[in-house]
UniProtKB/TrEMBL annotation:
Alphabetical UniProt keywords: Signal
Lineage: Bacteria, Pseudomonadati, Pseudomonadota, Alphaproteobacteria, Maricaulales
Superkingdom assignment: Bacteria
Cleavable signal peptide: 1-21
Organism per entry: Glycocaulis albus
InterPro entries: DUF6134
Record's protein name: DUF3108 domain-containing protein
Length: 225
């Protein structure tokens, strides 16, 4: 089930390979990253990340709504809502809930001393608590991933997810009503996800294969505009 959160929840870091881009350390607040999500050529739902400022903290609100069906009959439904709080480029707290296959999975994580203490519910229904490194990055994708990362925080179940990150270079993708140049990052775990980040460091695209289906994210507008 770790693959599902990685897919469905398809962070701004100055990638060393983006030497020609002026990448901000993090969003200023007030920006929104909004994707239309497609399964094959059919509309599948939406994925939004909204940024606000609360004093010294950056607040990122994530909302995912995915649905597949035949007319009014729903055969697949996925909803994810979470709120991340960041200070000085590090995660301070995260609270969220995922609705998947009729089951709800709450997650809470907060900084505690030298690390992040995360509480969640595993796919089998077992509650767990896990202490993670202070600099752990959540699997919400908007902040990006450095190549030396070995694991990230699973925002669906609250556990550590082993990953391999590969920088695939620059290429042209569909976004913002046209095409843009973006850097492609491949994230490999139980599922392989390709992610794209524009010249300003904002998350710009996402593609993966899940359950024999091709899923594609198309960004609707440039958040920096």
């Amino acid at each position: 089930m770790k693959s599902l959160v990685l897919a469905a929840t398809c962070s701004l870091i100055a990638f060393s390979g983006l030497a020609d881009a002026a990448i901000p350390a993090e969003p200023r607040g007030g920006e929104t990253i909004q994707f239309n999500v497609y399964r094959g050529n059919s509309e599948f739902g939406t994925h939004e990340v909204r940024f606000q400022r609360d004093g010294e903290e950056l607040v990122a609100e994530v909302s995912v709504r995915l649905r597949a069906g035949f007319g009014p009959v729903t055969v697949f439904r996925y909803e994810h809502d979470s709120v991340e709080r960041w200070r000085d480029g590090q995660l301070v707290a995260l609270e969220g809930e995922t609705l998947k296959d009729g089951n709800r999975f709450p997650v809470q994580a907060a900084r505690n001393g030298s690390g992040i203490v995360s509480e969640g519910v595993l796919p089998e229904g077992e509650r767990h608590t896990e202490e993670l490194p202070r600099d752990i990055i959540p699997s919400s994708h908007w902040r990006g991933y450095e190549e030396d990362l070995g694991r990230i925080l699973n925002t669906e179940h609250g556990d550590a997810m082993p990953v391999t990150i590969t920088d695939m270079g620059m290429e042209e993708i569909e976004a913002d009503g046209g095409t843009i140049q973006a850097r492609r990052i491949r994230l490999e775990a139980t599922l392989t996800v390709d992610l794209w980040y524009d010249e300003n460091g904002f998350w710009a695209g996402c593609e993966f294969e899940a359950r024999g289906q091709s899923i594609r994210y198309v960004r609707q507008a440039n958040p920096a505009a």
